[in-house]
Amino acid sequence: MTDNKNIGISKDLVAASATPLVLSILGQGETYGYLIIKRVRELSGGQMEWADGMLYPVLHRLEDRGLIESTWRESEEGRKRKYYRLKDAGVRELHVQRSHWLLVNQMLQKSWEGQLCST
Amino acid sequence: MFDLGKSTAEWLGDLRQSGSFEDSDLEELESHLRDEIEQLMDHGLSLKEAFWIATSRVGNREELPDEYAKTNTQAVWRHRFLWMAVGILAYLVLNHFIWLLAYGTTLVTVSFGVGSYPATIFSLSVQVLLACGALASAYFILSRDRFGVTSRFRKARRSRPRIIVFYAIPVALLGILIALWCAAGPILLPLLADSERLSTTWEATYWGSQAFPILFAVSLAGIAFVLSRPKNSESHVGLER
Fold first, then answer.
1. Is the pTM here over 0.90, yes or no?
2. Which chain A positions have a beta carbon within 8 Å of B32's beta carbon?
């Protein structure tokens, strides 16, 4: 995770948004690390890019907190992959995070509207 | 010809040496790496190019172990324990080796009709020379970073207070101990040599073999202290909040 990859986005913001992003991607169904990274790249239009290896510690911490669970399975090509899936607690956490981020988003939107009117 | 299996094994081996990874973590990273390589080759890259880009995307060797270490405290402690065990074993072996050395050198010197005090001094000088040789080879080995140790030392040198606490103080203590021994030896030994206690080879050997175990214990404690200090938590390089 280097600065030139995430142009303009602060490290703190990247770090803060990692958990809700991972949870919401997993909210769309079971998947594995490589696809999560790809999805993040797509969602941000290439604006936010994680150093791939940094995703896994985030996943492992979520697993330790009991929000997600993982299983090793073999893909069709015969490669072993670790699949991650949301647990019930993870779904609840996703809802909580969603409401918090929407609130922040709404607050910012409203405050910017005010600024546009006054100028 | 580029050998993917060999290069991947080397890359994983480098990561494993940091001691921050469980085996399943490395398996997961390998699987990820292969997905990435496949994708890159679909875009027309050669296997070798794809490998280099994929490994650099996964993350650099300095930051990645740090990120994993925050989660894998068990693995990190297992690694530290291994180092401590190696340290203790090395100390025991050295202790016996030095005792034998001290005994051998004093025995030879005393057999030439030299008194126990000069014999002790001679024995000590041989030991100092050997210790310098051992330290020089240790420095040579570590400077080639075959055990991933120097990268830890490099990190410890990031800020001035850390240099003082983790590097300068143990070295200074070691220096003071050596100086004290050098000063105490000539003062204490003649006094003791006058008494009957230090009149035999055995006694000379005893004194000659006591200095280095102490010095080595102190330097090993210093190294263990540096290696077991908590990771630098100020760096927000990863996805850690």
1. no
2. 33-34, 52-53, 56
